[in-house]
DNA sequence: TCTTGCCTAAGAGGGCGACC
DNA sequence: GGTCGCCCTCTTAGGCAAGA
């Protein structure tokens, strides 16, 4: 028997989950069925692809090679199926999106109209921090990636699609709330709450501090935007957040945006994809739907 | 000791081609 | 068209080993 797409798909899932059992759950199979498919693939290729050390599964060097090819082959087949479906006017397919957590305030509002316009396209949305997104990008696990800043080292094609202004937020009862024309010196001694290391928002905040020669004390680092906003709201300090992610809190008065020279910092949301990747029709349709760069305000 | 997860064996079910 | 046999894919059952 030749290598089958089924075997490659199952092997890819095992490699991604690091477990036969979890792969089986994901594929709605039993663990022995998954094991058997991978074993057949190994027998056909006459080389072990997975080695077990203790209870942990690890890919062999051959396994890594096969995994890379499996991803390419399966992506190509999926793309082919969607293109053929497109030719038939069926508009069926799947769009896998991975977004940084702060983009979850922006993307769902765009997915609604897209989904209504393309009812045959299934959408898989993964939300993670920047580090997780870059890991998925490296593994080519999704069609498109939404993030604030695209690292220069990333082998990516990208384009900005929307403005993403950053503002300094404070609790409504904060002494600086409502004051006009504040400068960097006014916040130089204010305690700040930072996002986790690697966060684009944090990088922009630190750049502002450096450029203005200030070093506000950092009271805590939090990994989730909600936690940051809650900490600010309870008066633990100031923070810099995407205006879009704090829209509701600003509207309801739970938080206030401070009027500080240099803010809002104008950044953009970017959509990126691996350089050279052949985008599926679904991904191309979503790209088309995102506002082009020249319309960004 | 118990739990979890890998692995094997045996067998069921369904697809498919060959044959009548 | 119906039957048979082969093969693939899957499930269940159970053994075994590692880790908590």
UniProtKB/TrEMBL annotation:
<keyword id="KW-0804">Transcription</keyword>
<feature type="domain" description="HTH lysR-type">
    <location>
        <begin position="3"/>
        <end position="60"/>
    </location>
</feature>
<dbReference type="InterPro" id="IPR005119">
    <property type="entry name" value="LysR_subst-bd"/>
</dbReference>
<dbReference type="Pfam" id="PF00126">
    <property type="entry name" value="HTH_1"/>
</dbReference>
<dbReference type="InterPro" id="IPR036388">
    <property type="entry name" value="WH-like_DNA-bd_sf"/>
</dbReference>
<dbReference type="InterPro" id="IPR000847">
    <property type="entry name" value="LysR_HTH_N"/>
</dbReference>
<keyword id="KW-0238">DNA-binding</keyword>
<dbReference type="Pfam" id="PF03466">
    <property type="entry name" value="LysR_substrate"/>
</dbReference>
<dbReference type="InterPro" id="IPR036390">
    <property type="entry name" value="WH_DNA-bd_sf"/>
</dbReference>
<dbReference type="GO" id="GO:0000976">
    <property type="term" value="F:transcription cis-regulatory region binding"/>
</dbReference>
<keyword id="KW-0805">Transcription regulation</keyword>
<protein>
    <recommendedName>
        <fullName>HTH-type transcriptional regulator CbbR</fullName>
    </recommendedName>
</protein>
<dbReference type="GO" id="GO:0003700">
    <property type="term" value="F:DNA-binding transcription factor activity"/>
</dbReference>
<comment type="similarity">
    <text>Belongs to the LysR transcriptional regulatory family.</text>
</comment>
């Amino acid at each position: 028997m030749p290598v089958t797409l089924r075997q490659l798909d199952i092997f890819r899932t095992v490699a991604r989950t690091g477990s036969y059992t979890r792969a089986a759950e994901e594929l709605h199979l039993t663990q022995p069925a998954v094991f058997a498919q991978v074993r057949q693939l190994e027998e056909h290729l006459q080389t072990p692809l997975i080695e077990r050390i203790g209870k942990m599964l690890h890919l062999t060097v051959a396994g890594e090679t096969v995994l890379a090819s499996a991803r390419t082959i399966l992506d190509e087949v999926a793309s082919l199926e969607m293109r053929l479906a497109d030719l038939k006017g069926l508009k069926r397919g799947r769009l896998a999106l991975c977004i940084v957590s702060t983009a979850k305030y922006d993307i769902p509002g765009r997915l609604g109209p897209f989904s209504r316009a393309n009812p045959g396209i299934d959408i898989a949305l993964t939300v993670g921090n920047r580090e997780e997104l870059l890991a998925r990008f490296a593994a080519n696990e999704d069609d498109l990636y939404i993030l604030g800043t695209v690292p220069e080292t990333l082998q990516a094609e990208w384009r900005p699609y929307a403005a993403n202004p950053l503002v300094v937020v404070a609790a409504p009862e904060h002494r600086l709330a409502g004051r006009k024309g504040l400068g960097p010196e006014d916040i130089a001694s204010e305690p700040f709450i930072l996002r986790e290391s690697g966060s684009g928002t944090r990088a922009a905040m630190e750049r502002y501090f450096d450029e203005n020669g200030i070093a506000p004390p950092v009271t805590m680092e939090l990994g989730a935007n909600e936690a940051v906003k809650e900490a600010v709201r309870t008066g633990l300090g100031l923070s810099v957040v995407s205006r879009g992610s704090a829209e509701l809190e600003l509207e309801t008065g739970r938080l206030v945006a401070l009027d500080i020279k240099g803010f809002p910092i104008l950044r953009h949301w970017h959509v990126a994809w691996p350089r050279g990747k052949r985008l599926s029709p679904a991904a191309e349709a979503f790209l088309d739907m995102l506002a082009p760069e020249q319309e960004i305000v």
